[in-house]
Amino acid sequence: MALLHQFKIARGQVTYKSRFLSSDSYQANKENNRITVSEFGTITLPDPCKNIFQRFLSRFELPKPTDNANVSFVTYKGDYYVSTETTIIHKLDPEKLETTQKVDWSKFIAVNGATAHPHTEPDGTTYNMGNSYTSKGAYYNIIRVPPTKRTEEETLEGTTVLCTIPSSDKTKPSYYHSFAMTENYVVFVEQPIKMDLFKIVTGKLRRKSISDGFLWDPKRNTIFHVIHKKTGEVSSVKYLAKPLSTFHQINAYEEDGFLVLDMCASDDGLAIANYNIQNLQQVRRSSRRGRRTVEGGNTPNEAKRDPFVSVFPRRFVLPLHVDQDTAYDQNLNARHSSTATAIRIARNKVCCTHEDLHGEDLHHYGGLEFPQINYAKYNTRPYRYFYGCGFRHLVGDSLIKMDVHSKSMKVWEQPGFYPSEPIFVPSPGAAEEDDGVILSVVITPNKDRSTFLLVLDARTFEELGRARVPVNIPYGFHGTFTAAT
């Protein structure tokens, strides 16, 4: 269940509060003292109060979307919301951590969900993505939310669908957790992690969770779709890459007629199964034996592999101007600063390979995820630094600052400490990109009630201080910072 946390820094002191999100899912589970709403990896148990015939018929009911918004804090029109990837988000009072309104995307536009990672323009205009499922197949939608409210009670009024992109496989659309944005374009990465809609819809009948309908199809290429933000026009050029999986993009920008796209990516889609109970149990047993690998058979849940060293930062360079005069079978990337390639192989197809944005030393820290940048000043612009978590474990066990120019890195780590996603906070009046601090919540599972909020100097990556919290806090996903007005 979504548990919201707040660290408040004021007058030289840090206070902490937490509160469970008062969602319908949480209330139903609490009242019944059992799982009553299916989640991504958990299937609803039959109601023991029903008779056998009623329980049998309940298996034919379509699964209800959860409103357990446990992924991220987001903002629309200046208001805070908490979000997962269904149609339901919750408007929130960030001071009290109280839910003020449940909001359904489908009441405003025809989508069956939206990501928990929208992008926001300097003027407040927000872009997001959501799927729609029709009798003609599955579609991806680029969503645009206006920057301001006309009335205080407004939520998503005025939201429009900028464009609709048909899935390359009508019954098995790609899963996506986020997308990229430049000054003029939105970039959607259609990856070979597929959602089998038939399996998902029949999951309750088959007693399988939503995650059972996810599959990795390495026979399919990755496709980059480029959409113009002002017109909604989808580029006729399809930029292809080898099969990869990605959850979080780092940054994207336009330069010299090219679109530079940086992301954290892996060469397989097996990470989607890392957090299955059987894998966590295997990791725990392996850890006790001093081993890091998960051993087993040949299924995605049991494959013999090392799930800790799979995700690394990569750069793709997409040529924006491809026409009848563009050459075939040669590297179109004229940017000498990048070794990424882009080769036109057909009239409207460009094959791309990536450049690694790291050195060999990152392998020692298990790769990198949860990337963050100086978003306010450098999102959609050329940048130099990003921050993330090193993953030698199934959760982050180090904090890393990467320099994309030199591919060098700075690291903060301590044995037995597991930091959350690093949040960059610029210094007041900052002139340099990395002038600020990094905030991260560090849990210490081997020590009781010793969680703390860590503060690092973003430039030197040296510790400036920590605020200890005398409670146990579970590991979380994403957070945000807001300055008091």
TrEMBL record:
A GO CC annotation given for this chain: mitochondrion
Cofactor: Fe(2+)
Pfam families listed in its UniProt record: RPE65
Record: residues binding Fe cation: H117, H177, H248, H478
Keywords from the UniProt entry: Iron, Metal-binding
GO biological process: carotene catabolic process; retinal metabolic process
InterPro entries in UniProt: Carotenoid_Oase
GO molecular function, one term: beta-carotene 15,15'-dioxygenase activity
Cofactor detail note: Binds 1 Fe(2+) ion per subunit.
Family note: Belongs to the carotenoid oxygenase family.
Annotated protein name in UniProt: Beta-carotene oxygenase 2b
